Amino acid sequence: MAVVCALTLAFALLLPLSQRDGVDSAPAAHGVSQGNQAKAEECENPQDQSLSPSGGSGAAPTLDAIKDRKDRRLIVGVDTNSYRWGYLDPNNPSGELEGFDIDLVHRIAQDILGDRDAVQFKAIPTSRRIEAIQKGEVDMVVRTMTINCDRIEQVAFSAPYFVTGQQVLAAKTSKITGFDKSLTDKKVCSAEGSTAYDNLEEGRKSGDLPASTDIGTTVPNQLDCLVKLQLGEVDAVVTDGALAASQAAQDPTVELKGGLFTDEYYGVAMKSGSDDLVRQVNRTLENYVKDGGWKASYEKWLHPTMDQGEKKSASATPPEARYK
Q1: Checking DSSP bridges between strand 264-266 and strand 140-141, what pairing results, if any?
Q2: Which of 67, 196, 302, 323 is deepest in the core (most CB within 10 A)?
């Protein structure tokens, strides 16, 4: 089975890009996400709760500790298997990680250490993102990580750097139409510790999903769900629409089903209390947008999978930063 999975993934990464039909790239209205964010009534718009780049006491203990390291490298948790976000391209002879998230990491390292390559990348599964930060294994996680109410109680987030939403991925031949009654008696896969699972759980409680929808299949990394879908072990996958679009580009037998049904704002996650680092990352994000770095990275990595011809995805515009 392991050999089959490996061959499946290797083949998928070598496939040419193709835009899937039926992609609804417009996120839901601001602040109306279903799922985990709605659970905490006292938490409103968690993506707007980060610290302004300006302000603070002027002390920079977290940044100083990073700069004082013997090897002067930023330690960052990333994904190495998400096509066009953070992945190893078998056709790239350098063997370096690349993708939209990886570009952002290089920019943060440049601004903090004066060297875009002063980074130690650590592959962190979806299920361990928060734990890795809390235990000090990494300085930050840049890994398509959604800002939500539960998570801002556990780690500190930057302002959002990307907006998307949850979506369903299934075989082209499937009669599944989206996050709806068509998932009756279907087996759905999601990543452990992901907002996808939270939304599946909430969907069954609210009645948006049938009680017979089997949501028990979870995996450490969301890409593992694509493998299970390819092998016929599940009927559908729920993940962020931006990731699902990249997965659909890898495999011509699957497609996105229905539109986005939540808001998802990605942020850079850091240890709680590291205010100086949070402010610095937010300063980097502001400049990254202003000088065109964000747009250039989007055009390079995400335009081929998320935009439909001349029609730009709503995700093609960086979210506006609002600070607490």
Answers
A1: unpaired
A2: 196
